[in-house]
Amino acid sequence: MDSKTAKLIKSKDTAIEIKLRNRLWQKGLRYRKNDKSVFGKPDIVFKSKRIAIFCDSEFWHGYNYLVKGEQFKSNQDFWIKKIIANVERDKLVNSTLTNNGWTVLRFWSKDIIKNIDYCVERISEAYGNKI
User: Fold this and answer.
1) Which of 2, 51, 77, 79 is disulfide-compatible with 72, CB 3.0–4.6 A?
2) Are 31 and 44 in contact (CB under 8 A)?
3) What's 11's DSSP letter?
4) Integer distance in angstroms from the first to the last C-alpha of the chain?
5) Cα 122 vs. chain centroid, distance in angstroms?
6) What letter would DSSP give residue 46?
7) Where are the alpha helices (DSSP H) in the chain?
């Protein structure tokens, strides 16, 4: 990956995050974003309710990677290691937060784009159930 490409890849405030955050704000749900004090630095955090939300892109987080096996045209060894490491890190973040009493919700970008109402409903249910 060259430096120009690296600058185009965002780790926070992505279009899917902004879309989901805007809808949550419209619903009256107030959150923190990219809270570094929470393990894994979730994209959206309801700290008092101990809810961590991640907005995952299919490529970077290995959507069905082990099933379909992504075919990379160049730098194949690098990308395979990178995607597998990301998947393993996500599992570690999920288990660490869950073991510490957090509710972890992960949404694929395609789900946020195509079915945002379902994503917001799941978040609202988790928020309401954490009294």
Assistant:
1) 79
2) yes
3) S
4) 46
5) 14
6) E
7) 3-8, 15-26, 65-68, 76-99, 109-114, 116-129
